[in-house]
Amino acid sequence: MMTLRLPGALGVLLLCLLSIVGTAAAVPTLDFTINAPNPGSIAYGVSGAELVGSGITIASIVGGLGTADTATPANNGVVAACVGCVLSFATGSLTASSSTQWFFDSGGTIQLVGEVAAAGISAGTTLFSGTWSSASVTQIGDSFNIAGGIFSSSTDATLAAFFGLPDGGLQWTGALNLSLLAAGSPPDAFASSALGSGDVMVVATPEPATFLLLASGLVGVGLAARRRARPGHALSE
What we know:
Order of helices and strands: EHEEEEEEEEHEEEHE
Distance between the termini: 5 Å
Radius of gyration: 17 Å
Strand content: over 45%
Low-confidence stretches: 1-24, 219-237
Oligomer: single chain
Shape: elongated
């Protein structure tokens, strides 16, 4: 079984974006960690089909990224175990491709279900759910790819309260960055059960323009960070 291990990059990229937006635009952040190896899968079927992710396990949820700009009002820096947490999604249909990328339409769904005992959340709870704004898969090498996308979401009120965030009055947006090994080049179909490391980052802000700016940069900067990390990644069989 081939596995891929890469360091997470979303923390670095969000900090870069915050330096552009400015310290006045505080964005309390929840970081959902995806560890490798992972039992989940990602697949794209035939021309015009959607990108589908299933059985992707989330290991933990962290409040903030270690800076004042991303800090959560409560339990900042706390790593809460996510027990039996499974991420699944389906994007909109394939709309275009290039020599190195598959591009998928808005729509579809993304959902995380599981238990967070530290927050008093029982098994089977929907921790967040949303709709894709955009998604893509980028081919970096012969079989190394990055799946990424931006989505708008709602977040479980108990989970939000655990990190000191109000249930109402906030916009929630999220970004996915996940590495995977898969054969094939755009626009060919592919399927992968060799998932690497990644993150889903959900940001809370009362300013729609600010979170759209931040979210738009999440995937691009994450891709650049993982591209830089690629020469040092470890593959084992």
